[in-house]
Write a structure and sequence with these properties.
Elements: E1 2-11, H1 15-26, E2 30-36, E3 41-50, E4 56-64, H2 70-78, E5 81-89, H3 92-101, E6 112-113, E7 119-123, E8 133-137
Parallel strand pairs: 1-4, 5-8
Antiparallel strand pairs: 1-5, 2-3, 3-4, 6-7, 7-8
Bound molecules: carboxymethyldethia coenzyme *A (CMX) and cobalt (II) ion (CO).
Organism: Streptomyces daliensis
InterPro entries: Glyas_Bleomycin-R_OHBP_Dase (IPR029068), MeMalonyl-CoA_epimerase (IPR017515), MMCE/EMCE_epimerase (IPR051785), VOC_core (IPR037523)
Keywords: Isomerase, Metal-binding
Length: about 150
């Protein structure tokens, strides 16, 4: 079951400048940063609020690290802005399977590694009324204490 907005993914050209904007304008602080080579991004997670399923909602600021990455391609076409939304679930495998059975294309056969050792998959935007949609299962809290 999908129980929270886990994050909103925002594509940007310059991660530091965008982080600075969110800090100066809203007072949001960086909770976590990492490079995800497989996804071709450098990212900053800004934690906005806790959620009643025990998780949290974040903004995920994304800067491409490779010209052939999906985010680089998207920035070239659209410029900066909202790139995707992500729903949180306790069981990404079960939810992705159930959604696939409804005829929505799930992009990965098996969930891959996402931010903070989460497990993620994506739904094709053309099957979701134009919204690239991610499903996320967070790592157990103990797995993220060293980040
Ligand atoms: N939101 C909405 N529509 C999008 C989109 C997005 N983010 N990205 C692409 N599209 C649309 C395009 O506008 C295009 O539509 P038109 O044909 O009508 O112009 C269509 O999808 C195909 O676009 P494309 O540029 O040819 O893109 P690709 O097919 O190469 O890739 C997608 C699209 C969804 C398969 C690819 O972006 C993908 O695999 N995404 C999942 C991985 C990802 O986004 N990783 C970065 C974030 C990592 C993280 O969150 O941790
Ligand atoms: Co994301």
């Amino acid at each position: 079951m999908l129980t929270r907005i886990d994050h909103i993914g925002i594509a940007c050209f310059d991660l530091e400048r965008t982080v600075d904007f969110y800090a100066r304008t809203y007072g949001f602080e960086v909770f976590h940063t990492e490079v995800n080579e497989e996804q071709g991004v450098r990212e900053a997670m800004l934690r906005i609020n806790g959620t009643d399923d025990g998780g949290a909602s974040y903004l995920q600021l994304l800067e491409p690290v490779r010209e052939d990455s999906t985010v680089a391609k998207w920035l070239e076409r659209h410029g900066e802005g909202v790139h995707h939304i992500a729903f949180g679930t306790e069981d990404v495998d079960a939810d992705a399977g159930a959604i696939r059975e409804k005829g929505v294309r799930v992009l990965y056969d098996e969930p891959r590694r996402g931010s903070m050792d989460s497990r993620i998959t994506f739904l094709h935007p053309k099957d979701c009324h134009g919204v690239l949609t991610e499903l996320v299962t967070s790592a157990a809290p103990s797995a993220t204490t060293d980040h």
